[in-house]
Specification:
about 425 residues, alpha+beta, elongated
């Protein structure tokens, strides 16, 4: 009985150790991801990108089918047969026929070129989608990184409010101020804690969206690490980025491919007026039902003519021309939209640059000085005056710090948006 008790105690201790180890493993914080790691995950796991890549492969497989010869036809004939068509043994002769049809020269090549353009267009769609998702990923990444920094700013804000509360408490104890100052400090601190809760909810929402973009479970924990890129002092003129966008944007290249395919579609429709060909070779024998004796052959050359009156052909040409006009209009609309998006991101970049300069060089420094002076004035003022100014200085300092973080994040997002529009990363 004593041995059983010792074994039981040992088993319970070992089980407790395993449970505590498992619990520790479960609460281990997630490893923060860098932007490069999330970008690689996006490229490998996003289902929409994978879908378009497979659709491009499927479209490219159409090209060799368009270039291939038409299927040959093989025929076997018994004739003549008296009384019943299936009395093969009663036939007096047998023939074997091989037929091969040929399209008018150039038709298959045009059809293959059109199919290749369509496959390349799907490729530009995949590239464009990847650029858009990468810009969305960067936007979410900079937002989440900024929010994580805002948490630290908010925690520093809480610490300053705690200082105000303690100072007002001391002032009240020395009969230098009214009790309402202490209460107001508590209210301000509680309000700041509420804002911190709201900030953490925004972090959760942003993390869930990032998980969705890269193809992870939206509910998975996610933290990011890195630095918001510093804004360049010298930004090239918008015309510089316009030239890159018009040359490299996958959307513009895709619209040009559609226009090229439509132009070839008109050529292909016009070739429907031209005949196709068919060649047939027949070997005949008078030794039915399966005999191969004899050396008699027949050669047949046929024209496959267009339909009577060319009604179908004219309609096909009209359809192809309408598609060409629509493709050219779409190409123009895509170019205009690209230039509009580029201008919007570029202007935002210039505006945020000026805002960051103002916040860094003037407003932040002034807010820090105002906070120090207001705290010192309230701490040393025996009359207890200056509490309102102290709270205002603290609020202004917090607002300025948050505005700087948000402006830096907006600048990084505008830069990512420009990269998405022009179709490549700007070094």
């Amino acid at each position: 009985m004593k041995s059983f008790s010792r074994n039981g105690i040992f088993f319970l201790a070992f089980a407790s150790f395993l449970l505590s180890f498992h619990a520790t493993a479960e609460i281990r914080p997630p490893q923060p991801y860098t932007l490069a790691e999330l970008s690689a995950m996006l490229n490998a796991e996003n289902p929409r990108i994978l879908q378009l890549r497979q659709e491009q492969k499927a479209a490219e497989a159409v090209v060799p089918q368009m270039l291939a010869f038409d299927n040959p036809e093989f025929g076997f004939t018994h004739s003549p047969i008296r009384n019943h068509p299936f009395r093969a043994g009663a036939a007096r002769g047998v023939s074997y026929t091989l037929k091969q049809s040929f399209s008018f020269p150039g038709k298959k090549r045009l059809a293959a070129d059109i199919a290749q353009n369509q496959a390349d267009f799907i490729g530009t769609e995949a590239e464009s989608l990847k650029q858009e998702l990468l810009a969305e990923l960067k936007t979410g990444f900079w937002t989440l990184l900024s929010l994580q920094r805002e948490v630290r700013v908010s925690e520093e804000n809480l610490a300053r409010l705690e200082q105000i509360k303690q100072i007002s408490k001391i002032q009240y104890a020395n009969n230098a101020t009214a009790y309402v100052d202490y209460l107001n400090a508590q209210v301000a601190q509680s309000s700041a804690q509420n804002e911190l809760f709201s900030l953490r909810r925004r972090i959760d929402t942003t993390a869930q969206n990032l998980n969705r973009i890269v193809g992870r479970d939206p509910g998975s924990p996610l933290e990011v690490r890195g630095e918001i890129p510093a804004l360049r002092e010298k930004i090239p003129e918008r015309e510089y980025f316009t030239g890159i966008a018009l040359k490299n944007s996958p959307k513009i290249r895709g619209s040009a491919l559609l226009t090229n395919a439509a132009e070839k579609g008109v050529e292909y429709a016009k070739k429907s007026y031209l005949p196709d060909f068919e060649i047939a070779v027949t070997k005949t024998s008078d030794n039915p039902p399966w005999g191969m004796s004899g050396n008699e052959y027949a050669t047949e050359f046929n024209f496959i003519l267009p339909t009577w009156g060319f009604f179908k052909e004219r309609a096909a040409v009209d359809q192809a021309r309408a598609s060409l006009i629509a493709s050219r209009a779409n190409e123009q609309a895509v170019r205009q939209q690209i230039l509009l998006d580029l201008a919007a991101h570029y202007n935002l970049l210039l505006q945020t640059r000026e805002q960051i300069r103002l916040l860094r060089t003037r407003q932040l420094e002034q807010a820090q000085v105002a906070w120090r002076l207001a705290r010192q004035n309230y701490s040393t003022n025996n009359g207890g005056r200056g509490f309102t100014e102290l709270l205002l200085a603290q609020t202004n300092l917090r607002s300025t710090e948050l505005a700087l973080l948000q402006a830096e994040s907006s600048a990084a997002q505008a830069w990512s948006g420009m990269e998405s529009v022009i179709g490549l990363s700007i070094e």
